[in-house]
Design a protein that fits this description.
This protein has twelve helices and 29 strands. It is of the alpha+beta class and 545 residues long. Helix 6 packs antiparallel against helix 7, helix 6 packs across helix 11 and helix 8 runs parallel beside helix 9.
């Protein structure tokens, strides 16, 4: 009895994806990769190709890619090298060897490209993956010190947006004493055989909650990029094996084995297994556009920032203040820096409108607001003709300058900022600027005083290319922010109209105040999905170029 219990306790109950290198150009792929069972989205990958122009020497050139790793990008990891090449007749070098790495919008992925010329000390080009993917044509151009020019181009790797979705279940009357798992293996083709494990399902049996109903055991959804089932995109006769096991008795109950092409076209199979069980395989190939595919189509992501200057924050000269300007960056500045540095890479103009709310000017004559802006929504550069500020460093400078000119006051109104952005976006759409997407990042310390109006504004914004990020600074009451986030219940305006999509992400700063990288990841992780959702709802497909 004790031995059996020990054996069951050692079972790995979570699913695993095994994505081994299927291409000599894939570098640093790690197997197994644990996938969050709450998400069916696989990480996107990009391929980076390199060309050097204006080469006036016959010296060999080659490039090494270094990836910064660790929580604060403190460690260097070599991804690999290109081949060594000399210039062609057009004085250019086009490397055939490329680099493939995972891509995350929400992370600051820092890269160094070491450019070697024969045995000379390499020249280092420091950049980020976001700067490449957010650049015009998803290309970074840099001049080297010797007069040459390097072009680094990113593209989605191997149409990785195409995925096969598996829903597999067992039917029968004899599940007692067994626990089940299935495995998916790439067997290769008749002339090029292989045995690459792709996936192990989670373990399920009759003791698992909610998985044994009406003589059925239903496995969790499995999503696999097609490039791992059909390497190269050509071998539709690639053989796929789906084998079902009783892991308690360490026996195979049976399997499906057939070509990828049959699997894709048939979509439904029933397999007679041992012990009078039936295996049901339902599968469907999906080719949903990805965030990268929309980036390739020329999306420009603009960032607008709103900053809370209400009295509850505390005076900037008082150390407990959330706006305290002593020492390093305060909470507001750290949030702007962490998230702004990432999003700014996707704004080709590098120009960001920044607005203040909940304040009045120390100089009373400045409080006679004229025109569209008010103390609920006023440019921190005090330029009512052009509220945009160049670069995130410029935003932080203007913030420090502005706070010395004002008294903290109130109330906390969100709707004026959101409504002004709605007007701007509608004007852009009227002008045919369909590929401008806007993020408004609101930093606040607590309760909102125009909750009903803000709900109305957010519902209206949900039909437009807008995402809203709310970062809660300090230890205030953020219950209303969770309502606006609408993770549990959708938003409705006062007329009963439902939001077209989820466009709000709320994150409490204090949970991540000691880890700026994690803060940015939490704040920005939903943006790619929201971008794709908006364009899909509007029926706008990415350009296939």
């Amino acid at each position: 009895m004790g031995g059996a219990c020990n054996r069951v306790a050692s079972i790995e109950y979570t699913s695993k994806y095994y994505f081994n290198d299927l291409d000599n150009n894939l570098a640093n792929e790690i197997a197994p990769i644990d996938i969050n069972l709450n998400s069916i989205e696989m990480e996107e990958r990009v391929s980076l190709t390199i060309e050097i122009k204006n080469v006036d020497t016959s010296n060999e050139h080659w490039v090494e890619l270094i990836r910064k790793t660790g929580e604060r990008a403190l460690y260097n990891e070599s991804v690999g090298f290109t081949e060594r090449k000399i210039r062609g007749q057009d004085n250019a070098i086009i490397f055939q060897q490329f680099f493939t790495i995972p891509y995350y919008f929400e992370k600051q992925q820092l890269l160094d490209f070491k450019v070697f010329y024969n045995n000379y000390q390499p020249e280092i080009i420091s950049t980020s993956l976001g700067s490449i993917m957010g650049g015009r044509g998803q290309t970074l151009k840099k001049n080297l010190s010797n007069g040459e020019t390097i072009y680094i181009k990113g593209k989605e790797h191997k149409k990785s947006s195409k995925k096969m979705i598996f829903n597999i279940e067992l039917q029968g009357n004899n599940f007692v004493g067994m626990k089940f798992r299935y495995t998916i293996i790439d067997k290769g083709t008749e002339h090029n055989q292989s045995n690459k494990k792709i996936y192990d399902s989670e373990v399920k049996g009759i003791n698992n909650k909610n998985v044994y109903t009406q003589n059925r055991i239903i496995f969790d959804k499995c999503v696999i990029p097609v490039m791992y089932l059909n390497p190269g995109g050509q071998n539709t006769d690639n053989i796929i094996s789906i084998e079902i096991f009783d892991i308690i008795h360490k026996t195979s109950l049976g399997k499906y084995e057939g070509s990828y092409n049959v699997l894709k076209n048939s979509q439904h199979f029933e397999i007679v297994l041992n012990n009078n069980l039936i295996g049901i395989i339902n599968c469907k190939e999906e080719n949903k556009p990805t965030f990268i595919s929309y980036l390739r189509s020329g999306i420009n992501i603009g960032l607008t920032i709103g900053i809370d200057f209400t009295g509850s924050n505390g005076h900037y000269k008082d150390p407990p203040s959330l706006h305290f300007l002593g020492g390093g960056l305060n909470n507001y500045e750290q949030a702007i820096r962490s998230c702004g540095d990432i999003v700014s890479a996707y704004d080709k103009e590098q120009s960001f409108p920044v607005f203040a709310f909940g304040f009045n000017f120390i100089n009373p004559s400045l409080n006679n607001f004229d025109g569209k802006y008010t103390d609920f929504n006023f440019p921190i550069n005090c330029n009512t003709e052009n509220p945009s500020i160049r670069f995130i460093d410029g935003v932080l400078r203007e913030y420090r300058n502005f706070i010395t000119k004002i008294n903290l006051a109130g109330p906390t109104y969100f709707s004026p900022m959101i409504n002004d952005l709605i007007l701007e976006v509608n004007q852009e759409l009227d002008e045919g600027k369909l590929m401008n997407y806007h993020i408004i990042m609101i930093l606040t310390d607590g309760m909102i005083d125009d909750m009903a109006e803000t709900k109305d504004s957010l519902v209206a914004a949900s039909f437009l290319p807008i995402s809203v990020i709310i970062i809660g600074i300090g230890n205030g009451d953020f219950r209303n922010m969770n309502v606006l986030d609408a993770d549990e219940y959708p938003l409705y305006d006062r007329t009963g109209r439902k939001a077209d999509r989820d466009l709000v992400q709320f994150v409490p700063y204090n949970q991540f105040k000691n880890n700026p990288q994690k803060l940015a990841e939490q704040v920005l992780e939903e943006i790619p999905r929201q971008v794709v959702e908006y364009y899909q709802h509007k029926g706008i497909q990415p350009n296939d170029n």
